[in-house]
Design brief:
The chain is of the alpha+beta class and 274 residues long. It is 19% helix and 31% strand. The strands form three sheets. Strands 9, 10, 11, 12, 13 and 14 form a six-stranded mixed beta sheet that branches. Strands 3-4-1-2-5 form a five-stranded mixed beta sheet. Strand 1 and strand 2 form a beta hairpin. The longest helix is centred in the N-terminal third of the chain and has 16 residues. The chain is globular and about 60 Å long. The structure holds zinc ion. The site of zinc ion has 8 residues, from loops.
Length: 274
């Protein structure tokens, strides 16, 4: 059995290791005080726990940002670590009942927190966001967020608002961030993205009019790029990169030849994937 041990939002591995530790190994590091919970990712299973803020890492461990382990961990360890991170954060932010304020407890038989006082069940929060490959002829729409590494561009993304269909969100986000209209919205694929609790839902869409407008609080720049002149784009494990690779491939460019930006720290509540 593997273990996902967290210190804050960071994950604890053995120094120099490229996989999750065993449960025995991790229990040795945490000293027997952590509250362990089960994590499933497909058929794979692990145990996870979060250390208290006072925990001091031992010399034999490496405490790593979650994004830094994305290119490192093999499957199914990567899926287990991402799922565990999502659940660990949800458990930490669901300690009290939202209805009556009593202390919650893990619900027996459910992946939920139960209020022993009023019976309210709180399930893990998942925040859906759309991420969109917009094309105009042989060009793709890319934006540079203030949170991207210098010079890095990606496809546009945004969270779903209450009352919106996913297609509504695609139309609104592209209109708000780039000032243009899109049509031909088609599903591409999806990816859990626990930074902190998103589900990224990918779409393709086609330019349908309007004048491109960049620069707002979120975006420093937005523009059209040909497949042979792409700026640095997100690393290969993100759906953002999957959408850009799809565009490149369809225009005769090998995705392996694209320049990626490096790893970076976690951002705030922005839906940009990568
Ligand atoms: Zn309650």
């Amino acid at each position: 059995m593997r273990a996902c041990l967290f210190a804050g939002d960071r994950i604890v591995l053995a120094e120099g290791a490229c996989d999750l530790p065993s449960l025995e190994e991790a229990k040795g590091w945490e000293g027997g005080s952590a509250e362990w919970f089960r994590v499933d990712a497909g058929a794979a299973r692990a145990m996870a726990a979060r250390m208290s803020a006072r925990w001091t890492p031992l010399p034999e461990v490496a405490v790593m940002g979650l994004r830094a382990v994305l290119p490192l961990l093999p499957e199914p360890s990567l899926s287990l670590a991402l799922t565990a991170a999502h659940l660990a954060r949800w458990r930490r932010t669901s300690r009290f009942c939202g209805v009556c304020g009593a202390a919650n407890e893990p619900a027996p038989g459910h992946r939920a927190m139960l209020c022993p006082s009023c019976g309210h069940l709180a399930f893990p929060k998942i925040s859906p966001a759309v991420i969109v490959q917009v094309t105009r002829g042989d060009n793709i729409l890319l934006g540079r967020s203030r949170r991207h590494p210098r010079g890095g561009y990606s496809v546009l993304a945004g969270f779903v608002d209450p009352g919106e269909s996913l297609e509504d969100t695609v139309r609104r986000e592209i209109r708000e961030e780039a000032g243009i209209r899109v049509r031909g919205i088609r599903y591409f694929g999806s990816q859990p993205w626990p930074f902190p609790d998103s589900l990224m839902v990918g779409f393709r869409a086609v330019y349908d009019g309007g004048e491109l407008r960049g620069r707002d609080e979120e975006l420093e720049d937005v523009g059209w790029f040909g497949a042979d002149a792409l700026p640095p784009v997100p690393p290969p494990y993100s759906i953002a990169r999957g959408l850009i690779d799809d565009f490149a491939r369809r225009h005769g460019v090998d995705p392996a030849a694209l320049a990626s930006w490096g790893r970076r720290g976690s951002g705030g509540r922005g839906a940009s994937s990568g």
